[in-house]
Structure formats: structure tokens, C-alpha cells
Design a protein that fits this description.
- It is a single chain.
- The protein has a single domain, classed as Double Stranded RNA Binding Domain.
- Helices cover 28% and strands 39% of the residues.
- The protein has four helices and six strands.
- Strands 1-6-5-4-2-3 form a six-stranded mixed beta sheet.
- It is globular.
Length: 199
Amino acid sequence: MFSLNARALVRSGALVGLGFLLVACETRPEIRTQAAVHANLASYRTYAFMPKPGTDKDGYKTLTTQTLERSVGREMVARGYTPASGGQPDLLINFSVKTRDKVEGDSGPAFGLGYGYGWGRGHYGYGFGLNDYYNDIQTVTEGSLMVDLVDREHNEVVWSGTAVGRLTKKVLDNPDPQIERSVTEIFARYPIKAAGQAH
């Protein structure tokens, strides 16, 4: 039968391991943004989406493109931009999505429980300690979403935002919430804040 101390140590080890797993499951996308050196984003007034963005294929608008247009449009309007109607927009917005497989290795302490029996004087007992580190090697799919704001007149990108994160089965089965979250986090880095946000 385990002593109370041994049971407490085993329970602590299990909780620590569970904590590592929970943290690993709550990864957030990595956000990167870049602005053209002389870009004056406040000088633009209107925007429109590229007729054939990088997220479209085979001549029709994909579900991903539709979700991105809703999400990005909401962020642009919140920052004072207006959708172009009829005339030429100041900004054209393009989207692109890329995926790649990559190998990852996670290391962590392995908890071990040992038992020993001594002859002669009849001593025996349980021991608990940290064993060698283990490596969990796995292949994961990483996805990147890029939003480009293009100066239509000069045909050059003036601002770009990218979200990079792991594509889990949950995300692939229902991508809209992750797309919207990524767009929100990308535009949180935009130089012009949304109405109601602190500068």
C-alpha cells in the first residue's frame, strides 16, 4: 500500500502533466505585421476586395473568402474606411492562405515510481523521483493567413498582416471562428485603432 507521501507525490505529478497538456492545447496564432516605410494609412478613405483574391479558385468565391470579407470589412469600417461604391477604391484588399507540415518535439519530465525490498533486516519501501526527459516527436500542420492592403493607384502593398498557427482537426472542421479571431488579432496591430479602442 502506498504511503500518504507517495500518493501525494504521484497525484502532484499527474496534475503537473495535465497542466502541460492544457497549456499546449491553448496555443494562439503568432501575429506579424509590416507597413511600407512611407505609408500614410490615414490618407486612404475607401476600400474594395480584390476580384480574385489568393483564397479563391476555379473562378468562384470560396467560403474562406466570404468569411474573410465579412471579418476584414468589419475591421476596416470600424477604423473609418468606407466600402467603395461605383468609383475606384483607394485600397484593394487581398487574402492568401498557405499550409505546411512541420516536425515538432516536446520535452518534459517523466515521473517515475520505484519499489525496493531489502533482505536481511526486512527493510522495504517506495521511492518517487524524476526520471530522464522524454521526447514526443510529431508532425503538425501549420497554417498562415495573410491580409494585404494595396494602394490601387501605385499598385503596391502599404500594409500587411499575417497570422500563423497550428491547424487542428477542430479548426479544420469549423474554420470560421479561427479565421475571425485571427483577423481580429491581426488588426489589433493596425496603426489606426478601431472606434472606441484606446490609442
